[in-house]
Write a structure and sequence with these properties.
Blueprint: E1 3-8, H1 14-24, E2 31-37, E3 43-49, H2 52-61, E4 68-74, E5 89-91, E6 95-103, H3 106-115, H4 127-138, H5 143-153, E7 156-164, E8 170-176, E9 181-184, E10 189-192, H6 195-198, E11 204-207, E12 213-217, E13 220-224, E14 230-231, E15 236-237, H7 253-259, H8 261-269, E16 273-274, E17 277-278, H9 287-293, E18 296-301, H10 303-318, E19 323-327, H11 328-331, E20 342-348, H12 354-366, E21 370-375, H13 381-384, E22 388-391, H14 404-421, H15 428-439, H16 441-449, H17 452-459, E23 467-472, H18 477-491, E24 494-499, E25 516-521, H19 527-539, E26 543-548, E27 560-564, H20 573-592
Parallel strand pairs: 18-19, 18-20, 20-21, 21-22, 23-24, 23-25, 25-26, 26-27
Antiparallel strand pairs: 1-4, 1-10, 2-3, 2-4, 5-6, 6-7, 7-8, 8-12, 9-10, 9-11, 11-15, 12-13, 13-14, 16-17
This protein binds fructose -6-phosphate.
């Protein structure tokens, strides 16, 4: 999942391309590159390994200038992280191309192109695409027709943009899978993987559909659909803020975003509650009709968003709504039996996760009463593909590790459970009780954040560890999973989560005095069961680190460190117990000196499968 940006401008475009890359860096930061057609009609390219600031440094030393150009930030799929594998890729010194996605038949194409005498300079799947376009140009096709012919020969899922040194002022873009937007201005045109990269130049944009090829010449743009027929795509006007997120007084975006959680949740709740009721319209104008027809819920998501779904299953089943939760990358390829009256719910911070989009398409194909997305990005693909939308109002999340959007998505899913509870015999007293608890969320999140200093001290123990176990029970098992994921991704410590009752079925063999075991222990119906499981760990000389309700009776002793979490109602406890685990992973990473906001090998938005 890489980021593409391109432009045909009246004046030099290199500044716009670089700013576009900064705004797309969340899609990958293994390497970056830019190409422009210079005044003498030659391609000039710069590529660097590492983050966009490396490219920026290179361009300060050796600036490029040109009105037509392309740029790319890479998350490696085929071919390691190196300058030669970075995009743009060039063929014959005249044709430059950037691509986001995966070309599945690249090996066969590479073979035939080598036989045709073309030389390769990279290990990427993308290089075959630029060669293939070149071969079609050699056969007399026009640039846009050459791109169309190439698309027809490629298997996989990709979005691409291409320029030819002999045709300054022209750019051809195509989509077969990952999103690609065209930016439209009075005298100029742009192309980018998302709206953020376009905003410094224009708010007006079109969304290319699968199979579209766009032929841009200056301000004019002719789009042909997959059948080769000219089509008009709607011109939208973005209402998204053009400002990039600022770090302010914080050291990292992750820390800032953890601390923004009380605000993110209160913004997410604004206009969604009336007195002691949840407003059904918070999910969209069709919500009443779709919820009336809902007999069960199928939740589909990836990573942290999947964990939010696992928590939501507890809430939904509590109010009598059958619920399944699926990892999108598995669901999309699994055979499943359609169930009548299914509401499919996708959860996604970005709204662009390729697996989630494909799984949603598959669920719709099976037949659903409606599709609801819980999302943080209004102008995203999942929002466009859904009948109902619940927006989390978190503002941009920059840190690769999701924090505020996880907590806010869970809040939205709790509201969904309440709205559906009305149809399953739960009275207004139940809803009023939970709404009352929901209103306490911002304050309870503040109280959890106040634990930061104590958690920073606890974090010292973890910094030289290679493994950790996370335990929870009931709705807190997914919270333990989320805690383990956060520790893994930002501090590179191997961490695994287990339902505490499952330890004795195998994982207990891992426990010794070197294994830190973290557990979340709210004072709920399972607390006594959990305490027995914790004793099993102590009996094997395991070292316990607990986040516990004061009423749980859990206290620090020689082999147990307990940090008390202010008491909260069990309806909202999973949301609150998330915070200490986020802070723990953040402080461990801080001590280890890892790149907290851009951990190695990852990207903020996963737009390839
Ligand atoms: C982990 C993390 C990822 C994302 C996952 C899905 O901190 O952020 O696991 O949750 O890639 O992304 P979205 O929510 O954008 O669909």
């Amino acid at each position: 999942m890489c980021g593409i940006v391109g432009a045909v401008r009246e004046s030099d475009t290199s500044g716009f391309l670089l700013e576009g890359l900064r705004r797309l860096e969340y899609r990958g930061y293994d390497s970056a590159g830019v190409v422009v057609i210079n005044q003498s009609g030659r391609l000039e390219r710069a590529r660097t390994v590492g983050k966009v600031k490396e490219l920026e440094r290179a361009l300060t030393q050796t600036p490029l200038a040109g009105t037509t150009g392309l740029a790319h930030t890479r998350w490696a799929t085929h071919g390691g992280v190196s300058e030669t594998n970075a995009h743009p890729h060039i063929c014959n010194g005249t044709l430059a191309l950037v691509c986001n996605g995966i070309v599945e038949n690249h090996e066969a194409l590479r073979h035939s192109q080598q036989e045709a005498g073309l030389a390769f300079t990279s290990q990427t799947d993308t290089e075959v695409v630029v060669h293939q376009v070149y071969l079609h140009l050699q056969n007399g096709l026009d640039l846009a027709d050459a791109v169309r012919a190439t698309m027809d020969e490629l298997a996989g899922s990709f979005a691409l943009a291409v320029v030819h040194a002999g045709e300054p002022g022209r750019l051809v873009a195509a989509r077969q899978g990952p999103p690609l937007l065209l930016g439209r201005a009075e005298k100029e045109s742009f192309v980018a993987s998302d709206i953020n990269a376009l905003l410094p130049a224009t708010r007006r944009y079109q969304v290319l559909e699968n199979g579209d090829v766009a032929d841009i010449r200056g301000a004019s743009c002719a789009i042909k659909d997959s059948g080769g027929s000219p089509v008009e795509r709607v011109i939208h006007t973005s209402t998204q803020s053009g400002a990039g997120a600022e770090l302010g007084e914080h050291r990292h975006f992750m820390q800032k975003e953890i601390h923004e959680q009380p605000r993110a949740v209160s913004d997410t709740l604004e206009d969604r509650l009336l007195g002691d009721r949840v407003l059904e319209d918070a999910f969209g104008s069709e919500a009443g009709r779709i919820f009336d027809a809902t007999r069960q819920v199928l939740i589909i998501a990836c990573g942290t968003s999947y964990h939010a779904g696992l928590v939501a299953r507890h809430w939904l089943e509590y109010v009598g709504v059958p619920c399944e939760v699926e990892v999108a990358s598995e669901y999309r390829y699994r055979r499943h039996a359609a169930r009548e009256g299914t509401l499919v719910v996708t959860i996604s911070q970005s709204g662009e996760t390729a697996d989630t989009l494909a799984a949603l398409e598959e669920a719709k194909r099976q037949g659903v009463v409606g599709a609801l997305v819980v999302c943080n990005v209004a102008e995203s693909s999942l929002v466009r593909e859904s009948d109902l939308v619940f927006m989390t109002h978190c503002g941009p999340e920059v840190g690769v590790a999701s924090t505020k959007t996880f907590v806010s998505a869970m809040t939205g899913l709790l509201l969904l459970a309440l709205v559906l509870s009305r149809r399953h015999g739960f009275d207004s007293g139940f809803e009023a009780h939970v709404v009352h608890q929901i209103r306490t969320l911002p304050g309870a999140l503040e109280a959890a954040l106040a634990m930061e200093d104590a958690i920073a001290e606890m974090a010292q123990v973890f910094s030289d560890k290679e493994h950790a176990l996370f335990l929870g029970r009931g709705a807190h098992f997914p919270i333990a999973m989320e805690g383990a994921l956060k520790l893994k991704e930002i501090s590179y410590i191997h961490a695994e989560a287990y339902p505490a009752g499952e330890l004795k079925h195998g994982p207990l063999a891992l426990v010794d005095e070197k294994m830190p075991v973290v557990a979340v222990a709210p004072n709920d119906l399972l607390i006594e069961k959990l305490k027995s499981n914790l004793e099993e760990v102590r009996a094997r000389r395991g070292r316990l680190y607990l986040f516990a309700d004061p009423a749980s009776g859990l206290e620090s002793r020689e082999d147990v460190t307990v940090l008390h979490v202010a008491p909260v109602d069990s309806a909202i406890a999973p949301i609150i117990y998330t915070v200490p685990l986020q802070l723990l992973s953040y402080h461990v990473a801080l001590i280890k000196g890892t790149d907290v906001d851009k951990p190695r090998n990852l990207a903020k938005s996963v737009t390839v499968e």
